[in-house]
């Protein structure tokens, strides 16, 4: 599946929906990721062949735009780059697609859900590319300190990943209207408070998501 939405906590192919009104449309463009998170759905979720987010091949920009052309963008409430992998592994393609979607519908909100490690992946600052194309960047904070973050994400960039992710969030603020750091509620109140302090210091929003098995 390249374009999908979430329904009753399941990944659903857009093509199988009766109505797309107010749909949050997710773009699944890569399965690559520099992390191996202990909680990653890629390791835990069993999916049927027709609803799988495992890609046989990464779709090209043309293939993704052809998928979008099957629908009326006015029906969508949001487009989210997300999926079974880190979307910013393909930052140039994300930017190209977001730019094309904005040409067709300027007010379509576009979000990236990311681990925030794109600047380590690409060894350059990618955040200026977001300007005028991306409305929301939602970054997985996961934990209140570098040690716990590393234990959870097992990032191939090692212990420095936590600080790099925070630096990325700070840089995004110059180019993106809404920058969010997210955690899941099961980390507990104390850690959520420490995460809130990190967000306050960065002047970004903390989103506490309910944990779903
Ligand atoms: S960053 Fe996301 S895609 Fe990558 S391993 Fe962690 S949960 Fe999975």
Annotation field: number of helices: 7
Ligands, ions, cofactors: iron/sulfur cluster
User: What proportion of the residues is helical, as a percent range?
Assistant: 25-40%
Please state the second-level CATH architecture: Alpha-Beta Barrel
> Beta fraction of the residues?
15-25%
> Biggest sheet: strands, sense, closure?
8 strands, mixed
Structural class: alpha/beta
CATH class: Alpha Beta
- Counted up, domains total 1
Care to describe what's here?
- This protein has one domain: Alpha-Beta Barrel (TIM Barrel), CATH 3.20.20.70.
- It has 213 residues and is α/β, with parallel strands linked by helices.
- Helices cover 31% and strands 21% of the residues.
- The protein has an eight-stranded mixed β-sheet with strand order 2-1-3-4-5-6-7-8.
- The mean pLDDT is 94.
- The structure holds iron/sulfur cluster (SF4).
- Iron/sulfur cluster (SF4) binds next to loops.
- Iron/sulfur cluster binds next to loops.
List key phrases describing it:
single chain; 213 residues; alpha/beta; TIM Barrel; eight-stranded mixed sheet; 7 helices; 8 strands; binds iron/sulfur cluster
SSE layout:
Layout: E1 3-7, E2 10-13, E3 23-28, H1 41-44, H2 61-68, E4 76-82, H3 91-104, E5 110-114, H4 118-122, E6 136-140, H5 146-153, H6 161-172, E7 178-184, H7 189-202, E8 205-209
Parallel strand pairs: 3-4, 4-5, 5-6, 6-7, 7-8
Antiparallel strand pairs: 1-2, 1-3
Quick gist of this model?
Helices cover 31% and strands 21% of the residues.
């Amino acid at each position: 599946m390249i374009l999908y939405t979430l329904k009753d906590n399941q990944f659903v192919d857009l093509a199988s929906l009766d109505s797309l009104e107010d749909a949050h449309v997710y773009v699944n463009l890569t399965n690559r990721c520099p992390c191996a998170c202990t909680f990653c759905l890629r390791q835990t979720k069993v999916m049927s062949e027709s609803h799988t987010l495992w890609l046989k091949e990464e779709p090209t920009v043309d293939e993704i735009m052809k998928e979008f052309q099957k629908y009326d963008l006015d029906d969508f409430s949001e487009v989210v780059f997300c999926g079974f992998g880190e979307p910013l592994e393909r930052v140039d393609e994300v930017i190209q697609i977001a730019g094309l979607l904005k040409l067709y519908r300027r007010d379509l909100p576009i979000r990236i859900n990311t681990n925030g490690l794109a600047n380590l992946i690409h060894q350059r600052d990618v955040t200026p590319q977001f300007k005028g194309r991306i409305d929301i960047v939602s970054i997985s904070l996961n934990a209140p300190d570098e040690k716990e973050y590393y234990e959870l994400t097992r990032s191939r960039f090692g212990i420095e990943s936590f600080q790099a992710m925070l630096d990325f969030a700070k840089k995004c603020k110059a180019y993106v209207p809404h920058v969010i750091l997210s955690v899941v509620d099961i980390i507990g109140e104390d850690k959520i408070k420490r995460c809130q302090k990190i967000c306050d210091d960065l002047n970004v929003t903390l989103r506490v998501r309910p944990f779903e098995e």
